[in-house]
Structures are given as C-alpha cells and as structure tokens.
Amino acid sequence: MRYSSWARKTDSKKREIDTRLRVVWLDVAMLAGALMWCAPAAWCVESEQDSGSKATEFFGNGAEINVIVHDGTGNPISSTAMVRLYRDGNIPSGEGATSHGRVRFVVTSLGEFTVVVEPAGQATLQKDVSVRSPGETQVDMFLRPAANSMSGASGYGTPTAAGPSPGSSAGTGAKIVLAPKAQEAFDKGLRALSAEKMRDAEKYVGEAARLAPGHPDVLYAQGVLYLKEKNWSEAQAALEKATQIDPGHARAFAALGMALTDQRKFEEAIAPLEKSVGLDGATPNWETEFVLARAYYESARYPESLTMSRKALADAKGRAPEISLLVAQALTGDGQYAEAEETLKTFLREHGDRPEAAKARRWVEKLEARN
C-alpha cells in the first residue's frame, strides 16, 4: 500500500514521539527500580557508569564513538532512535537519541563495546565494536525496510470491525495527531523530563495538558512527571486515565504499575504490569518484568516472582546482573534455600566487584547458617 507524503511525515513524527516516550519511560523504570531495591526487604542497587569527556579523549585513553543509523535506502534516518552503548557487554557507557540519524559518545577507556539501537516500531539492532586506539570510531547501523511502517509503530491497537481503537483515527490505526501548539509543548515537556529539568517539564507538560487534556500520551507524560516528583497518587490518577483512553498503551500501564508499587500497593500493581508485559509481546521489556517480579514477591507469589525475575534477567542480556538477587529472594521465599545460595554465589563469582556484592555476601552467610 502506498502512502501520501503527509502520511509518511505523520508516521515519522509518531515514531519520533514514541522514541522520546521510550527514553522517558526508561528513566522512570530506572528510578522505580532503584526505589524498590532500597526497600526494607531488598538490596540497594547502584549501576556502574563509564562516561567520558573531550578532555579525557585528548589527554587520556578515551575515544569518540560516532553512531550513524541508516534507513532502508542507506540514508541517515530522519526520525529519532534511541541508542545505548555498553562496555564489556553489560556496563552502561552512555545513551542518547539520534539527531539526523547520528549520536556521539565519548568514552574514558578503550576496549570492547556494544551498540544497541532501538528504533520505534522496528526490531532492535545490536553491533559489537572494538575500539583499540584513541580518536574517532564510526559505527554504521542499518534498519530493515518496513513493509508497512504505519502498522503498530506507535504501540496503539489497530482498528477492528467494531471500530477504531481509542486514541486512533478511524480507519488508519494511527494516533490522533496533536494540534501544533499542543505538539510543541508536549515535545518540550518530554525533552525537559529526559533532561531532569523539572521546572521546564512542569511548565510544558502542563501547557500540553491544558491544550489536549484527553490525549493519552499527554496524560502519560503527566504521570511520568508526577512519578519523578514522587507524587504517587496524582501519577496514578493520570495514568489510569491514559490507560482507559488507550488500552494499548504499554508504557502507561507499566508506569501505572510503578505508581502503585511506589505506594506499596503491590497486589493492585500486578494487573497493569501484567497488561504491559502482554502488550510488549515480541519485544520484552525487562524493566517492566523486573518491577512485576518485585510486585509478585511482595505479594508472596513466589513461584510467579521466580519465573518473572528469571525472564527479566535473561531479557536484560547482561545489562542488569543484579536481578539475580531478586531471583535469590524468590527462591528463598519458595523454600529453595540451596538454589538461592548457589544463585548468590554465582553472582559473587561473576560480579563480585559490584556495589551490591556486600549485600549478597551477607545473604549467603545467613543461608549457610541455616545448614
């Protein structure tokens, strides 16, 4: 099927918005994960970062990694894609959204890196790169041409015989487009949220809400803003509205689950988190899976927590090895003490230099004392 130039522009804008929402969602997932790990029944987690600067590049052992994301024709993409960089497979070294298909990272040390590109509505790309000398390294990533990029790109449901899904235009499956002023305020609000500029975020998200109070993405942005401000009840209210208007908004359901867990309403959080995991489908979101596993654990549903925490650990693909501690907690809750002990010992063998290792050692000592 051929689309008009207007449809292509609309689709490109949708994908750019979806990517920005994904960036903001990741920030919220990381915040919720940190808060939950610091709960009384859990271990406090810190992540190792490897960020750099121009000064390090010129005066130390740093290097610059330039990532260029190409479309199916070989040209740099015009929409936005999220790019993440990892050192030695699992150590976060930076993340950023592309601008005109490009994003730059400056790292403090040489070695082996993995570039992960997450374009909205398309499969994630991954490429390993070896940086052996200071200076600039260019990494080219190529997207596969999409047969029908309009379908499912935004995460909204497609129309059925009974009519279009909420938040969609009749007969197209596309999201309702915001008016120009609302769109401008919404974009500025997302950028401010991603940059942790809370005053600006309040201003622009509030303006978008005034101009488009019933748009699910605007309500989602409101919910994220309230979550970052630790205003859990207001976040819950905004996100409940977003999911009612658009029952296909996976990240809104996930954020709603987080708003409930932050209020320690773990049993209530399970349903929206399960809904989010189901909507993500073929593209598992390990951050949501992790929060769901925690909600199961806090609700004393240890077998489900064990299954979901193991899935989150596998889907994270080495990016969050500390999830092993939740696996061990679920095993302990389920009475599988020997396996919990072995899980913790394996974590210590492979990640003994991580900050949460001290907590894991204390758990091993307690488990050994049972014998």
Question: What this model shows, in words?
Answer:
By secondary structure, the chain is α+β, with helices and mostly antiparallel strands. The chain folds into two domains: about 50-145, Sandwich (Immunoglobulin-like); about 180-370, Tetratricopeptide repeat domain (Serine Threonine Protein Phosphatase 5, Tetratricopeptide repeat), CATH 1.25.40.10. Helices cover about 50% and strands about 15% of the residues. It is built from 13 helices and seven strands. It has helices at about 5-35, 55-60, 180-195, 200-210, 215-230, 230-245, 250-260, 265-280, 285-300, 300-315, 325-335, 335-350, 355-370, and strands spanning about 65-70, 80-85, 90-95, 100-105, 110-120, 125-130, 135-140. The strands form two sheets. Strands 3-2-5-6 form a four-stranded antiparallel β-sheet. Strands 4-1-7 form a three-stranded mixed β-sheet. The termini are far apart. Mean pLDDT is about 75; it is low at about 1-5, about 30-60 and about 145-175.
Query: What do the pLDDT scores average to?
Result: 77
In CATH, the homologous superfamily of the largest domain goes by the name Tetratricopeptide repeat domain
Shape: globular
Q: Count the beta strands.
A: 7
What is the spatial order of strands in the main beta sheet? 3-2-5-6
What is the domain total for the residues? 2
Per the CATH scheme, the topology name of the largest domain is: Serine Threonine Protein Phosphatase 5, Tetratricopeptide repeat
Low-confidence stretches: 1-7, 30-60, 146-174
Specify the CATH architecture of the largest domain: Alpha Horseshoe
Radius of gyration, whole Å: 21 Å
Termini separation comes to: 67 Å
- The number of helices is 13
Give the structural class. Answer: alpha+beta
Please report the first level of CATH classification, the CATH class of the largest domain. Mainly Alpha
Helix fraction, binned, reads 40-55%
